[in-house]
Amino acid sequence: MKVFALATAALIIQAIPSMAPAAETPDPHAGHHMTTEAKVRPAVYKTSGVVKKIDPAGGSVTLTHGAVPELKWPTMTMAFKVKEQAFFDKLAIGRTIEFEFVEQGKSYVITAVK
Q1: C-alpha dist (Å) from residue 38 to 5, 32, 33, 42, 83
Q2: String of DSSP letters for the chain
Q3: 50: how many CB neighbours lie within 10 A of its CB?
Q4: Percent of the chain having pLDDT more than 90?
Q5: Whole-Å CA distances, 54 to 27, 48, 50, 67
Q6: Spatial separation of the C-alpha atoms in residues 34 and 113, rounded to whole Å
Q7: How far apart are CA 105 and CA 45, in angstroms?
Q8: In Å, how far are 81, 84, 113 from 90, measured between CA atoms?
Q9: How far apart, in whole angstroms, are the C-alpha atoms of residue 75 and residue 71?
Q10: pLDDT, tens digit, 9 for 90 and up, residues 43-88
Q11: Vertex 74, ends 60 and 103: CA angle to 5°?
Q12: pLDDT of residue 77
């Protein structure tokens, strides 16, 4: 009786494709190792602000920037790290700039200046 029940169950599983074990397909990513950083890109935020203080030696700039709704930030004045030294050429006290930034650890880093 048990043999008959097992044979019947096997026939039912074969007859219903959704219950049959899926055929193994090769993983296109097998052998490729990506770091978590490569898979997950930080969110890029955009706003504009007025340059209040420039500190090239410390690699930062203080800006009074507009609201950043994605972060639920109101207009405020704060310091940002600057990703590239060349960005300091675009900064001057009192100048309004458009910029992009990312969160990097506990810092916010400017990644583009217009």
Answers
A1: 51, 12, 10, 10, 18
A2: -HHHHHHHHHHHHHHSTTTSPPPP---TTTT----HHHH-PPP-EEEEEEEEEEETTTTEEEEEE--BGGGTB-SEEEEEEES-GGGGGG--TT-EEEEEEEEETTEEEEEEE-
A3: 15
A4: 63
A5: 50, 16, 11, 21
A6: 30
A7: 15
A8: 15, 11, 7
A9: 11
A10: 999 999 999 999 999 999 999 999 999 999 999 999 999 999 999 9
A11: 45
A12: 98
- State both tokens at 52: 């209040």
Q: What are phi and psi of 62, to 5 degrees?
A: -105, 130
Kindly state the tokens that stand for 34. Answer: 């990506």
* Residue type at 55 in one-letter notation: D
* Residue with token string 């219903």: 16
Angle at 43 between CA 38 and CA 45, to 5 degrees: 145
Q: Which two tokens stand for residue 59?
A: 């690699």
108 or 10, higher pLDDT: 108
